Amino acid sequence: MSQLSLQPIERPRDDDAFVEFLSTHEFPFHVRPRPTAEDARARLVAGVVDGPGAFGCWVLADGEVVGVVTLEDLEDDAALIDLRLAKDARGRGIGSAVLPVIVTEVFGRFPSVRKLEGQTREDNVAMRRAFRRAGWVKEAHYREGWPVSGGLPLASVAYAILRSDVQSGTTTPVPWDDEP
Ligand SMILES: CC(C)(COP(=O)(O)OP(=O)(O)OC[C@H]1O[C@@H](n2cnc3c(N)ncnc32)[C@H](O)[C@@H]1OP(=O)(O)O)[C@@H](O)C(=O)NCCC(=O)NCCS
């Protein structure tokens, strides 16, 4: 396995590279699967990597860019993750292996964040398995929660990891059967 690391995306230095990354690769499980260069630039302007409560990093494998991770709501208790690997970097274990690196970075850099959450479409098997493999816990299954253009909505599935669990080396389960 390659050496994985994160490198903060710097604006405006990295703007063109970010736009190229987002508009070159296809993201079949995102609401917008093929972002155009204009879409990508609009996301930058909207603050996806450096807006309030936002932070974006390149994912590097042996020093080469293989993906982008963006985080939002970092001023809240619970932050949100969006991880996107380049097409030829997928399915090689990078997603599962980089999640703990991201968790360490976020909990280290943003002391108020207690929890990191990710939502993905029910048929995004790679993301769901990567979350599981990295110790994230499924917390919600929003039936018909993910609109699909020209088709029926799919479920949106939410996974999360707690700072307290990472610190104590435990995994707190979700109390599904807690109704009296
Ligand atoms: C989702 C993503 C980050 C996962 O990272 P990855 O490096 O491809 O995943 P991994 O290689 O670590 O594989 C994780 C698991 O999924 C499985 N898997 C990988 N690709 C798969 C595929 N196309 N179909 C089914 N299973 C797959 C692996 O076998 C592995 O399973 P295991 O833990 O049982 O061995 C990456 O595929 C990606 O960037 N996809 C496009 C963007 C995206 O959908 N991001 C999610 C945003 S929430």
From TrEMBL:
Keywords: Transferase. The keyword Transferase applies. It comes from the Bacteria. It holds the Pfam family Acetyltransf_3. GO terms for molecular function: acyltransferase activity, transferring groups other than amino-acyl groups. Residues 8-155 form the N-acetyltransferase domain. This is RimJ/RimL family protein N-acetyltransferase. It comes from Plantibacter flavus.
